Amino acid sequence: RKEVEQDPGPFNVPEGATVAFNCTYSNSASQSFFWYRQDCRKEPKLLMSVYSSGNEDGRFTAQLNRASQYISLLIRDSKLSDSATYLCVVASGSARQLTFGSGTQLTVLP
Amino acid sequence: EPEVTQTPSHQVTQMGQEVILRCVPISNHLYFYWYRQILGQKVEFLVSFYNNEISEKSEIFDDQFSVERPDGSNFTLKIRSTKLEDSAMYFCASTEFSNQPQHFGDGTRLSIL
C-alpha cells in the first residue's frame, strides 16, 4: 500500500475555477502534514501546513481528518500561476522525515 | 528571505566514481535532510542529521552513502561508488525545529554515465 496516495491528475481547469485535491496516508502515527508545490524540475516549495482544525491562506484552504487519514486542499479563483504539481506530504519518525505523495498535476488554462 | 543553497547545480560523473554534493542550510537551522527524486518519480527521503549525527535513514541510504557536516555551515552527501540508478535530483532541506516545515534547496541534478 502506498504510504501517501494522491490522484495524479492531470487537472485542467479554466482561470477562476475552484479545484480540490485529496490525499490519504497510511501511517496513523504521522505527526505533521503539509502541502508543497513543485514546478517542473524545481524544488518542492511549502504551500501550507495542514491542521486538524482546518486552515486557510488566501485562496487556499487545507483540511486534515486524522480519523480517516485524509488531507485535502481547495484552491479558489485559480490563477495561471497556480499551474504546478501539488504534493501531499506527511512527516513522521523521530526526525520528522517527510514522505511525499506522487503529486497531482494542475494546469490552469486561460 | 534566507535560503538553502546547493552546489553544484548539475554534476556529471562516470559510473564507479565518487561524488560529493554540497549544501549550505539556513544558518539557524538545526535539522538537515537529504532527499532524492528520480526523474518522473516522487521525492524520497534519504537521511536526516541532527546534533552531528544521523538521526534517521531510509533503505536507500546504504553503505555507499555518507553525510558529513565538516564545518559550521556545510552539509555534504557523498556517494562512494556511483551507479547508473543514482542518477536523480538530490535535494537538501533544513529546519530549525523538527516539527516545523522543511525548506528545500534548489537541488543538484546528478547524471551518472
Give a structural overview.
The complex is a heterodimer of chains A (110) and B (113). With 110 residues, chain A is mostly beta strands. Chain A has no helices and eleven strands. Chain A has strands at 4-6, 11-14, 19-25, 32-38, 45-49, 55-57, 60-65, 70-75, 84-92, 97-100, 104-109. In chain A, the strands form two sheets. In chain A, strands 2, 4, 5, 9, 10 and 11 form a six-stranded mixed beta sheet that branches. In chain A, strands 1-3-8-7-6 form a five-stranded antiparallel beta sheet, with no helix packed on it. In chain A, β9 and β10 form a beta hairpin. Chain A is globular, with a radius of gyration of 13 Å. The N and C termini of chain A lie far apart (37 Å). The relative contact order of chain A is 0.34. With 113 residues, chain B is mainly β. Helices cover 0% and strands 50% of the residues of chain B. Chain B contains no helices and eleven strands. In chain B, strands 2, 4, 5, 6, 9, 10 and 11 form a seven-stranded mixed beta sheet that branches. Chain B has a four-stranded antiparallel beta sheet with strand order 1-3-8-7, with no helix packed on it. The termini of chain B are far apart. The mean pLDDT of chain B is 95. The A-B interface holds A 31-32, 34, 38, 41-46, 49, 87, 91, 93-103 and B 31, 33, 35, 41-45, 48, 50, 55-56, 58, 89, 91, 93, 95, 98-99, 101-107.
